[in-house]
Amino acid sequence: MPQRVAVVGGTGELGFPLACRWAQAGIEVVIGSREQAKAEKAAADLAELTGKTAEPLANPEAAASADVVIVTVPFSGFVPIYKSIADSLRPGAVVIDATVPVEASVGGKATHVFGIWEGSAAQLGKAFLPKNTKMCAGFHTVSASAARDFDVPLEGDVMVCGHKDGKPAVRELVDALPDLRFVDAGPLENARIIEPITALLIGINHRYGTDRSGIHVTGLPEEGS
Ligand SMILES: NC(=O)c1ccc[n+]([C@@H]2O[C@H](COP(=O)([O-])OP(=O)(O)OC[C@H]3O[C@@H](n4cnc5c(N)ncnc54)[C@H](OP(=O)(O)O)[C@@H]3O)[C@@H](O)[C@H]2O)c1
User: Fold this and answer.
1) CATH code of the domain in which 175 resides
2) Could you write out the three-class secondary structure of 128-180?
3) Candidate from 31, 71, 72, 206 with most ligand 1 atoms within 8 A of CB, to mutate
4) Which residues form the domain of 178?
5) pLDDT value at position 222?
6) What's the farthest any 2 CA atoms get from each other in the chain?
7) Cys staple from 103: which of 16, 44, 110, 136, with CB 3.0 to 4.6 Å?
8) Contact (CB, 8 A) for 196 and 105
């Protein structure tokens, strides 16, 4: 298990419940925010919910405080966030991007601004970070609503793509959450396929009246077999 993870955007819909679950699993958690006071409030909420502690820090300091950093912010604010953490990252840090550029997935203006059809949010984020960063992408298909339902284990597959030397740390974060399964989804370029799956799931949620559809890849060998 990684000893420590920093959640940039750890005050949010996805980042906060993941932070709570990792804290419950015994991982040291840092909650990052653009505002120190907001991080402190989230850390207090985490303590109340889980009985565990988390360190509240502004995003750049949070990014500097751990070897593994997950970024859970909206695509609309993504570029300034990446710029704000780039200089603080530890050499060789693992950065996991969970961004879903929903605007790009449905053909919005961002597509033309950032050229997302040719790439992905994760690849765009990587471009702002030091060359030695082990960039990965994952957790796109984990429902924030399901993650907030703390009495129920999160289920489904987490498709993770990116730097091969970053994936073991991502796998450990996935394995720390019972009933989630790590699936190696190849190189970071595959983020352009994985990110839009969330847009698909949002539509499925609407049609089936739920807020927690996910993904399960069949036909894989049992772990350890
Ligand atoms: N929600 C889901 O079910 C889900 C599932 C999978 C993936 N995702 C993806 O994960 C990312 C986070 O989703 P979310 O639902 O957690 O988002 P969110 O709650 O709207 O935002 C997360 C955090 O990002 C910061 N933030 C908000 N607006 C920002 C802006 N314009 N610029 C910079 N930072 C901003 C805020 O933190 P501070 O104000 O504390 O800085 C906020 O608490 C998104 O890219 C989303 O597509 C979401």
Assistant:
1) 3.40.50.720
2) CCCCCCEEEECCCCCCHHHHHCCCCCCCEEEEEEECCCCHHHHHHHHHCCCCE
3) 72
4) 4-208
5) 84
6) 48
7) 110
8) yes
